[in-house]
Design a protein that fits this description.
The protein has about 525 residues and is mainly alpha-helical. The longest helix is centred in the last third of the chain and has 24 residues. The chain is built from 27 helices and 6 strands.
């Protein structure tokens, strides 16, 4: 083994340590999506069906209904071995992503043959954060660069399998993967060896394509800028404003219409992902995916590497530089097409491997003198230490609400109390509480699947998500509006937010956020 390969292996080991250590504890909290991946893997392992009773093989054609958001199935399947070995818990649910994040380091090295790329991805705050939760978006950081590497090495059959896996990993990957494949074909030029692997790829993608025109497409449409949260009211309001001050209606429609709105929103969103704010200062727009808001997705020191890449691009615009820039540009498209608070690191993470490659090109251009290497290495080491300190000691306080903090503390204390009550009510404000009940109690999937059939009424009522439906049951557990003020006929236990109870309510349990703010409360009511 060469010295470079030995070093890459060493950084992969370091990357695994950074991604696995205290995995169940950090990021602080455990989201409904994570619990859903874990419990569905447990359900498939036990019964061959997901929580709704859909056979595992059908999930490629339908996606996983889950809460009504129709998750893609790959992460659930990857979770099954860990649950088989370690049981159903936070660690086994998050473990696949930590391994994927580690393997991505090796994939980046194979693609670039640059140690610097492996180092940057190993220590990347964005990569580490996205690898430490059951966040399926991160799967693309392995499958895309690995598929590209295999394609460029003429290993078309293997690349087809890798690209096909990526197609079932995350909604954003479904948009970017075909664009990347088309770009590769143009970059390398079509040859006969691509024909039959291409046919196989088309066959493998059929189930996924079918799911995109079924109910599984609902989630994609719901989060897209082509479906504004407030409808098209903003367009109508802008048009009305112009008419009021004298602009003819026909002219106002030319300037204010749906296509103009969508293009404007896309351009604004897209450019934001290339901004210094996203890269180096503000970072993620939300902490839902374990990211630290208010901290850049890259280290300040990497500004120098970015400058180095820009200089290379201007003075030596090699084909490989332009191609990597194109891949990074394609990676930001899904995030730009999505509505929300912006700076969506989960949807933009597809671009991360290619941004890392860009930085590695710049780093090797800048780091030519040993004195500079030593200085920047020290700064890089200190930057990583500051990130780890921030991640362990400050991030939990800031991300607690986004990461559904409190369930890990609540459930072991709640269940012995709940066993004494014939009725238990969970508030919908707790965000899909039924999946936490199923996850932490390891409810028999056969029982769960039987109960869930009655929940399908939420779709019949035209509701998009299950938690919008008031009054669905899992055995004695009711989920929906808390209704604490209503009279009860038998002892009832309530679990909700503290502000859903009268101020003088006595309680069994009160769970607090890391900053001391009350999170959840458990109280009883007698007839």
């Amino acid at each position: 083994m060469s010295k470079t390969k030995f070093l890459v292996l060493g950084f992969m080991v370091l990357g695994l340590v950074l991604r696995v250590t205290w995995l169940a504890k950090y990021p602080a909290g455990f989201t409904p999506d994570e619990a859903a991946f874990g419990y569905n893997a447990y359900s498939i392992l036990q019964t061959g069906k997901d929580e709704w009773g859909t056979s595992w093989w059908q999930l490629f054609f339908t996606n996983m209904r889950s809460f009504g958001d129709y998750k893609l199935p790959l992460y659930t399947f990857l979770t099954i071995p860990g649950i088989k070995i370690f049981g159903l818990n936070e660690f086994s649910t998050r473990l696949p992503n930590a391994i994927i994040g580690t393997l991505a380091i090796g994939a980046i090295y194979l693609l670039t043959k640059r140690l610097s790329a492996a180092v940057i991805l190993t220590l990347s705050p964005w990569a580490i954060s996205m690898s430490r939760g059951a966040f399926e978006a991160n799967l693309a950081t392995l499958f895309l660069p690995l598929g590209i590497y295999l394609f460029l090495k003429n290993k078309y059959w293997l690349s087809v399998l890798v690209f096909a896996l990526g197609f079932y990993s995350y909604h954003s990957a479904r948009l970017v993967t075909p664009l990347v494949i088309i770009s590769l074909i143009i970059y390398k030029k079509v040859n006969k060896g691509m024909l039959f692997p291409g046919i196989l790829l088309g066959i493998l993608l059929i189930p996924g394509l079918m799911s995109m025109v079924s109910r599984g497409s609902a989630r994609t449409a719901d989060v897209s800028i082509i479906s504004p949260t407030g409808g098209w009211g903003a367009v109508a309001d802008r048009r009305f404003e112009a008419i009021v001050v004298g602009l003819p209606d026909a002219v106002s429609r030319f300037f204010s219409n749906k296509p103009i709105y969508v293009v404007s929103a896309f351009v604004k969103n897209y450019l934001s992902y290339w901004s210094p704010q996203f890269w180096f200062t503000n970072g993620a727009g939300e902490a839902t995916y374990g990211m630290i808001t208010g901290r850049g997705t890259f280290y300040y020191i990497e500004i120098i590497f970015l400058i180095g890449f820009v200089i290379l691009l201007i003075h030596k615009p090699k084909k490989e530089y332009l191609f990597i820039l194109l891949l990074a540009a394609l990676g930001f498209v899904p995030a730009a097409l999505s509505k929300g608070p912006g700076y969506a690191t989960n949807r933009a993470v597809i671009a991360l491997p290619f941004l890392v490659v860009m930085l590695s090109f710049g780093a090797e251009f800048i780091l030519k003198k040993k004195s500079i290497i030593i200085l920047l290495s020290i700064i890089y080491f200190l930057s990583t230490l500051f990130f780890i300190e921030d991640y362990l000691y400050h991030a939990p306080k800031n991300s607690a609400r986004s990461m559904n903090y409190g369930w890990i503390d609540l459930m072991p204390r709640l269940m012995p109390i709940a066993d004494r009550f014939p009725n238990v009510r969970f508030s919908r404000s707790l965000s899909e509480p039924h999946i936490f009940v199923a996850f932490y109690n390891k409810i028999d999937p056969v029982i769960y699947q039987k109960e869930s059939q009655s929940w399908l009424e939420f779709e019949e009522k035209g509701l998009k998500f299950l938690d919008q439906y008031d009054g669905y049951y899992l055995d004695k557990y009711r989920f929906g509006d808390l209704k604490y003020s209503e009279k009860v006929n038998e002892p009832t236990l309530y679990i909700g937010r503290p502000n859903e109870f009268p101020d003088d309510t006595s309680h069994y349990i009160k769970v607090f956020y890391p900053d001391g703010t009350p999170d959840m409360m458990v109280a009883e009511k007698q007839p």
